[in-house]
Amino acid sequence: MTSLMTRKKIQAITILPLFYGYSAFANMEFNTDVLDISDRSKVDLSRFSDADYVMPGAYLLDIRINQKTLPQRSIQYLPLADKKNSKVCLPPDLIEKMALKTDAANKVTLWHDDQCADISAIPGATVSDRIGGGVLAITIPQAWMKYSDPDWTPPEQWDNGTPGLLLDYSVSGQLGRQSHNGSTSQTLSSYGTLGANMSFWRLRADYQANTSRQEDQHNSNFDWNQIYAYRALPMQAAKLTVGEMFLNSKIFDSFRFTGVNLASDERMLPPNLQGYAPQVRGIARSNAKVTVLQEGRTLYQTTVPAGPFVIQDLNSSVRGRLDVRVEEQDGSVSTFQVDTATIPYLTRPGYVRYNTALGQPSTHNHNLQGPFFSANDFSWGITNAWSLYGGGLLAGDYNAWALGVGRDLNVFGAMSVDVTQSFARLPNEPTASGLSFQTNYAKRFDDYNSQITFAGYRFSQRKFMSMSQYLQARYSNYNAQYYGREKELYTITASKTFMAQDSAKAITAYLTYSHQTYWNARTQNRYGLSASKMFDIANFNHITTSLAAFRTTYQGRTDDSLVLNVTVPIGERRRVGYSLQTNNSDITQVASYSDYTNPNKTWQVSSGVNQDGKPLARGFYTHNTPYGSLNANVSYQKDNYSSVGGTFRSGITATQYGIATHQNSSNGGSRLMLDTGGVAGVPINNGRAHSNRLGLAVISDITSYYNTDTRIDVNQLADDVEATRAVVQSTLTEGAIGYRRFDVVKGSKLLAVLKLADGSEPPFGAMVLNEQGREIAVVSDEGSVFLTGVQPEEQLDIAWEGQRQCRVVIPNTAKPLEQLLLPCITL
Asked: CA neighbours within 13 Å on the CB side: how many for 443?
């Protein structure tokens, strides 16, 4: 008897989805005779007869406008006069986020005491009431929209995020010992950003700290590099910044100042109108710490293994010349410079890019020093081919102006030419004036699989001065016959791919070159060439070879480095390798073993000898966790040195929803806080993050102003966890802390029988709703229902005939897969 009853219940539950499938046909009537149920008089299938029927009430829904998803919000469905149907109440502020043209916006009407908006008067506009998936889908013909780029989210739909606090940091340390004298050294350094978000304002404070100890000498310092606040101005595609900052101009050299800056932000433009971020390439002789600085300010710091390295994740807003410092584990330090001059300054027709700054120069100890100034530059797109750009910097005793033209040469690339003149008055000296001429060029040769990313030439007269040079001469007594002033600068960055029949086995080569001459100072040069190739030999597939060579002449010192690497796969994600490395006259040969079987825990061990026959050993380990990333290393060379060091990068984000520690990819950048409803251990984005004890996780590698999907790894969920909403979308403004909630439930699976106060059961087809108004089950024959993901003492409402009728409470003593008798208390 029990088996027969259970079989009937299963049949009833199995048939119910058929009604969902047929609900696409409005006003359909169902023949209940096909149902194998005991009492056909107690059936409520009215809601299945209308595809768009929604029971009146409030629902927490995603808003999707033409496939662009906005954050969740509560949406009301209000009953109509006949009480048999309901109508969605669109919040009036939602209309602005639709980015409608003026003619379409004027067709929108308000109802329900102006608390609801109606878009039905817009031809072709529809609002889908099929909200079973937790989504309110709004479709508007493209003809009524302001924008038509499918790869770009319009400004009206950008998310300023939620108020919160953040701390992003990187900590590097090294402990070393020199064998020849037994001396030891300890260094510890950190840099990062402390921030606070309030509405559309972002407050940021960048810091750097260093401490070192060598024998009896100990040095420590801590500096706030800059303290500033900024906000996006979406409709102007601009960014407003106030406080301490560095001038970010495409025409004038950078210097530190305190004031206000208003500038076009090309990241807010469609992708095809945006710029690029600089790259830094070099070679490390051993496991080394690489630091990228600008005027003494740390922009980036990491630990790299021995061999060639490439830093590609610098902020796209970085401008000017960068100083790169490579600290080897034997204590030696090498430095070089990278010029980040941008590609020719071209602007789309009719559009003006601008940058305006007002303020006063400031020192690193936050004191104002120098004249009040105004700096302005612009670029105006005259036609599809021509752009005019220029600007002026006015500061009393120092003034400069610039004018240039950019030209799109079509198949011949793009080019710009400009001239800058400066006027500087120093105490007890006549006015110094000089000119600086510059030309830039960029070209991609698709037919030859190569490109010149940037090529430039600049010549400056002896008495030409930038603002930073003027401040140095004025306040540091640093003049001395214009010692150190730039004269000529040649730069080129290019790449070439030599295609093969198998594209994966093509040869890719990179070239970098810079040549800087000075008035009364030594010339500085940097040459770089790297190439890589993949091939097969016998039974060994995907053998990789790479060659990198650099020569740097800097501050009277010449460094030559060359590395030849060969790696051979010996299994899935395991490799052995050979490396030949030269540094000036020192030659080192190393054999290595690398293990990448776990992408989040990779390691490499290597050993070899130098030209004197002295053995060496190295180890490098990388561990990525949801709470940060660690690079650790150890090195030893006989009769020379031994050391151990590493870098840890992490971040902490706190909002009204809670606090979470997470990986950190960009200090102070945009991030997304994800809520899994209190469920811990939920894996997100291929395990890059896991929800903590509060059910919170943070993804920090969110690109500002770009639509991003974030998803739960549903195949990795625990058996008692289910995700009914596993994907969320976001388009965040710069520095925003976004918040999204996944629909995740963790709990028991129960088979229950529902009973009303009079001993009867709810009708077949009645809905079971959780506290958020989401339908989680349907009542079948004799009040039976299968519940998943329920918690002790959780309250569930039972609804039929268009309204909630009664409520059940899950008891504390409920056991998984146990059949319960649940009384349903009338509401």
From this structure: 17
